[in-house]
Every structure is written in structure tokens, then in C-alpha cells.
Amino acid sequence: MRPRASLISIAVAGLMAAAAPGVAAARVAPAQIVASLYATHKVFGAPGGRATGETVSWQRPITHERTVLPVLRDRNLGRQTWLQVLLPGRPNSHTGWIRASGTQLGVIRWHIVVSVGARRAWIYYAGQLKRSWLVVVGAPVDPTPTGQFFVEENIQEPASFAGNPYALATSARSNVLSEFDGGPGQVALHGMGGGLNATPGTAVSHGCVRFLNSEITWLAHRIPDGTPVTITR
Question: Which tens digit of pLDDT belongs to each residue from 159-190?
């Protein structure tokens, strides 16, 4: 199955948010093509080229849901279709090619944009601004990384867990912390439960982006895995 060129063009634009987020909603594309994995995939440096040694599991480690990756473009080589996808983990915002076989394509219309400098998040649906909130970003010593990312997992946290009630675990990783609280320094968009209360508009986190509990709940009820997350300066 070969994705239509028009849809792949939308996918590329979907990862290119406005330089001044929240100012021009038209520059956030109305849709993002994504690939749901039905098998663990080897990652290749080019279509039909050598494997990089990296693999992407078909299943997420916490929720056990299928892995969903944003698609940047496709290429046909003989009877084989290849997809260039945005990948989770380090180095941040890295990409690779996977075989289209063992995937199912879909469309996501949500897009989250966070400005570290403005300490604000803008939430778009179908290219239109729906919400804008002040958020808590990383402290100067533990800054929130910038780049093009996506939601890996939408996790409902127990009441005892720091950052409850929800966490949208992203593909971003801290540029300062290689490990945090037993994890890989993964950056999440999460709530302020469990003692993480802070004033929206401040920079005091370890790199994650904190939302008021009502805001992260609103997001968690709408945002699917694979949703683009653009973090700007």
C-alpha cells in the first residue's frame, strides 16, 4: 500500500509548527500521517540500505499499546514501500526508514506546540487553535529540550504518583539527565499531582512540561499516541 503523495506532504508540514507559535495557526498543518506498527521493525539509514542496528518495538513499554510513529515521507523500491519516520529516544528528533509492511497508516489532527521561552502551550486541532495555557517548563539547569517530537504513550497515573493524573510521555529525552527516577530521562507532559505543584509560567521542572490537572486531563481525553509535539525556544 502506497500512501498518496498529498497525504505525505501534509505529514511533512505537520511537523513544521509556526516559528512564533500561537500567532499563525495556518502554519500548523491540519493533519499528520502516522504508522501504527504491527511488528517490531528494524531501522534503516535509507530505503533498501543498511540497517542502523536500531529497532522499534511494536508495543509501548507502559501501556502496551501499539507504537505509533509520525511519517515524514515514503519511497517505493520495486514492490517494497519504505516509510521515513520520526523515532523515539536519543538523539532527539532523529529519523529513520522502516518497511511499510507490518504497519497501518492513519491520520492524526491534533498538534501540541510548547514554547520554552514563553512558557506556554498551544493546542491545535485540524490546524486551528483550540486551547492556550501557561505551563511549567524545565529549570535552567535541566532545560526542556527543543525539537520535533511526538506522544509515545498516554498514561493514566495513580493518585500516589508524582505528576498525576495523566502523563503524555513523549519521544523527547533530556539533554542533561541520562536517567531520572529509574527512567531514561524521558520528557513528559503531565499534571501537578503528587507534590509537583508549581506556578504556571515558571521554569522549575527537571525538563518535563507541567500542566494544571484540569488541563492535562482535557488533553489526555483527546490526544492519541503519535500526536506531533513541537517544542520551541
Answer: 989 999 999 999 999 988 665 554 568 999 99
Q: Whole-number mean pLDDT of the chain? A: 89
Report yes or no: 107 and 32 within 8 Å, Cβ to Cβ: yes
Assigned CATH for 110-232: 2.40.440.10
| Domain definitions of the chain by residue range | 5-108, 110-232
Contacts of 136 (CB under 8 A, 6+ apart): 119, 192, 198, 199, 200, 201, 202, 203, 204, 205, 209, 210, 211
CATH of domain 5-108: 2.30.30
Residue 73: burial class (beta carbons within 10 Å; 0-12, 13-18, 19+): middle
